[in-house]
Amino acid sequence: MTGIRRASPSLVPLLAAVATVAAGGCAVSSGTSGSLVGAEVAASTPSAVGVRTREVSYQDGETTCVGLLAWPTNAEGPVPGVVLVHQWRGRGSHEKRRAEMLAELGYACLAIDMYGDGVFEDEPARAARRSGAMIADRDAMTRRFVAGWNALKAQPEVDAAKTAAIGYCFGGTVVLEAARRGVPLDAVTSFHGTLMFPGTPAEGSVVADVLVCNGYLDPIVPREMARTFMQQMSDAGARWTFIDYGGAVHAFTDPNVGPYRHGARAAYDPRADARSWAAMTAQFHDRLGVPAAGARHHASSEENQ
What we know:
By secondary structure, this protein is an alpha/beta fold.
């Protein structure tokens, strides 16, 4: 992995904003220019139509992590793989459903565990401490991500030569940091991720195609932060696309957050959710190809309508 030209912006305001937003509740720009130690596989179970899931245990040093793998049952061989990184609380129902949706598209998805032991934090203060500790130590954060990426590639259902990553909120920061550090993914998508990074990527170091799906009114991503991120990516010669969804605030993909109410800083936005998922799907089709399993699932779904 290549280096990053270091800067020293304070992360304290960012972490405080994330905590405040979580507790409370289409312009397009583009540019061109841990180790795995014996992943253990649990028995699989049926999930969504045409999808199976199973837990996968893997190691990051001495920490045992527990991910959830979802894959299409009609695949005729290994398919492109996607790492999914959870929001700040940990891997929960939202991540499970998104992994299943990716499997319905024909990809194998591993929803990884950034905290270890499958921890999901119900208490916002504890979630803030866990995510804040990760964001403050970008080296450890990226090692934990790479351990999950290696676990994905080790699965027999996965074509290890074609991989991507997506992340939500905290997870968006994780996958963007991995891309900026040169982890050789084919594509990376961030959904309402935070965009404060402690440096500019070295020129030519970002090899992944990067898509950022952002709520225009997200209070934790002010305009100057977004502009700085885009300038950094341009300076690095990265392939990137940045989409602002008008009217959307933080966490716009998560129905568990609830609908928008006046003054809400986080809220579900079904239109932004659908459009951002479509943008990711188009990116994956371009960078990973259209898996035959996903095409067959789509055709079968249309026949049954």
